[in-house]
Automatic annotation (TrEMBL):
Belongs to the ABC transporter superfamily. Residues 11-240 form the ABC transporter domain. This is Putative ABC transporter ATP-binding protein YxlF. The gene is yxlF_5. The keyword Nucleotide-binding applies. Gene3D superfamilies: P-loop containing nucleotide triphosphate hydrolases (3.40.50.300). Keywords: ATP-binding, Hydrolase, Nucleotide-binding, Transport. GO terms for molecular function: ATP binding; ATP hydrolysis activity. SMART domains: AAA.
Amino acid sequence: MTKQDERRPMIEAIGLSKFYGPFAAAREVSFKVREGELVAFLGPNGAGKSTTMKMLTGYIAPSEGEARIAGYNMMDDRIEGSRHLGYLPESGPLYMEMTPTGMLDFFAEARGLTGAKKRDRIDAVVDICDLSSVMYKPIAKLSKGFKQRVGMSQALLHDPDVLILDEPTAGLDPNQIRGVRRTMRRLAETKTILLSTHILQEVEAMANRVVVINEGRLVYEGDVDGLRTIGKGDLDEAFHSLTGVEASKPDA
């Protein structure tokens, strides 16, 4: 057994399916993210990434299967599982009329943080997300990059073991993406992360492993080198091979 195999599974998708009438947004998706890993979650638009992430967080119920965070079933023990989880959806929960300091204070109290512990956690996430220069500006007036950082900061307030991040760099310019990557590397030193992205350079720069989904089904789970081999050294080609039109044909 390898050292990696001995790590505790912190995110577990066990046969997850989500049906909307005859349409399957996800079908029998199974994978694990072990303690200390940063795993990239890839797939084209409409592949089922966000649906799978919402099932993993307990935000929506699976039609079939089971989602576990830190060992907790997210349907039966969602509150306990949520104590270990920080979730940043693609459109994060921001109150545009608030300032970052006001919003973080609000979320901290909602999570039961008070006194010195609340102050310490707010100071910590402001440092991690590099927000000190905008703490008293209305969120509505911040750049998209800073808005993403504010969203990230609220997901980190309770110091979770696990982070599930849905497209945290979507719509950002290259400098903003660089800042988010820097934050991701810092977080990956102490947390388990599942990161949804369309940017293959982020996979090479940060990920330990890769999970690829297409049309609601898992089509690859493994390391970056294995994915590169599929594309004969080219990650773009590998992604196309697994998720392009040819891959979707029944006889492909």
